[in-house]
Amino acid sequence: MKKITVYALTTCLWCKKTKKYFEERKVPFEAVDYDKQPQEKQEKMMEEMRAAGCTGSFPFTKIGSACVQGYDPDEFEKLLEKK
Question: At 32, is the secondary structure helix, strand, or coil?
């Protein structure tokens, strides 16, 4: 299975929905709360996000090497090869 990492903000409704999506489907993922990280780590996360083709808004989900911006269940399914 592809590695999944969800970069989120603790106060973001769409970030919570994204985490819940993977939890309900029992798909293993790592969740990283951007706003709880030190500034240096935040800068690295932003660089990684932009390098993957995302714009810098949350949630940002990496599925393998692909980037999904926002809450997009159809794209999650596509990248997980479930559709």
Answer: strand
Whether the Cβ atoms of residue 56 and residue 46 lie closer than 8 Å to each other: yes
The CATH number covering residue 46 comes to 3.40.30.10
Contact status, residue 6 vs residue 30, Cβ threshold 8 Å = yes
Band of pLDDT at residue 82, cut at 50, 70 and 90: low
Tell me how far apart the alpha carbons of residues 60 and 14 are, in angstroms, rounded to a whole number.
10
Predicted TM-score of the model (pTM): 0.87
Going by their DSSP bridges, the two strands 66-69 and 60-63 should be labelled as: antiparallel
Number of domains in the chain: 1
Q: What CA–CA distances, in Å, run from 46 to 1, 6, 49, 52?
A: 25, 13, 5, 10
